[in-house]
Design goal:
two-stranded antiparallel sheet, eight-stranded parallel beta barrel, about 40% helix, alpha/beta
Length: about 280
């Protein structure tokens, strides 16, 4: 399956000067040409670093800073944007009732004219749970809720009147072989990971195997990765990734820096033909 190279801008609200700055950043990302505009689903900004070894929390006890809730913001994004797909990377199932979440997603899909991507994950940041009165549980209990939630969301989509504008793409984030990759193989339209190139290549092959075991074509699952730079992006592309996302953490005074996003968009345009589809890989 030939896919276009797509560029995603993750614009978290944590530490933004104010809501207006965040809103303006969303509009500017679309103006520049981002294909996806994303936020996160954290009630508090996590202090973390994203590397090709995974996500590392930099401090267990972190001070609160300016932050806004993701799903209510998505509804407004659906009104103010007109081309880019929108979503959260990713929604934590543990503090979202799955049936209600399906209804929320359907509604935002209508608001946006069919541009919502439903990003889902098992949840990992304990502070989000405990400060809002949710049970953090264990790794196993969170993934049990995740698996059950995916089934409930799928069922609820089929019961809503009116239904979503389109089949809402399900994005699942993570790279764990025991629970995440099997869920990707069963439910995901998009798989997002922060794995290094070698680990990504191995995990991607595993997704194909698991998808086949579930009666699905692994090529139908879009591969999305974090942007670590142009050199590694070419390697990820050779390994099958077509969507590349950068997190643009805001400065509390100056706001968002779009320089890396501009480089990514230029990289996309150079490597795509006039129709926007991925050029054939060179031997």
């Amino acid at each position: 399956m030939t896919r276009p190279i797509r560029i995603g801008a993750l614009l978290p609200p944590g530490n933004a000067p104010d809501f207006a700055t965040w809103r303006s950043a969303v509009l500017h990302a679309e103006e520049l040409g981002a294909d996806l505009i994303l936020s996160y689903d954290h009630f508090h900004r996590p202090e973390m670093a994203v590397t090709d070894q995974g996500i590392a929390v930099l401090a267990e006890v972190q001070p609160d800073v300016t932050n806004f809730e993701g799903w209510t913001a998505l509804a407004s994004w659906g009104e103010i944007t007109h081309r880019a797909e929108i979503g959260l990377l990713v929604t934590g199932i543990g503090y979202r009732n799955p049936d209600l979440l399906a209804d929320m997603a359907r509604t935002v899909d209508h608001i946006s004219g069919g541009r919502l991507v439903l990003g889902l994950g098992a949840g990992w940041y304990e502070k989000d749970y405990t400060t809002y009165g949710y049970e953090f549980g264990t790794w196993k209990s969170r993934f049990d809720l995740f698996d059950a939630g995916l089934k409930r969301i799928e069922a609820r989509f089929g019961q809503l009147i009116p239904p979503p504008v389109r089949k809402i793409p399900i994005l699942i984030g993570g790279g764990g072989p025991k629970r995440t990759l099997p869920a990707v193989a069963r439910y995901a339209d998009i798989w997002h990971s922060v794995l290094g190139v070698e680990a990504f290549t191995e995990a991607s092959a595993r997704v194909d195997e698991l998808a086949a075991a579930n009666g699905r074509d692994g090529n139908a699952i879009e591969r999305s990765v974090h942007w670590f730079g142009e050199e590694s992006a070419d390697a990820y592309r050779q390994a099958g990734a077509t969507t590349f996302t950068i997190e643009m953490a805001p400065h509390p005074i100056t706001g968002y820096d779009f320089s890396t996003l501009k480089k990514m968009l230029a990289w996309r345009d150079v490597r795509s033909d006039v129709s926007g589809f991925v050029l054939e890989s060179q031997p």
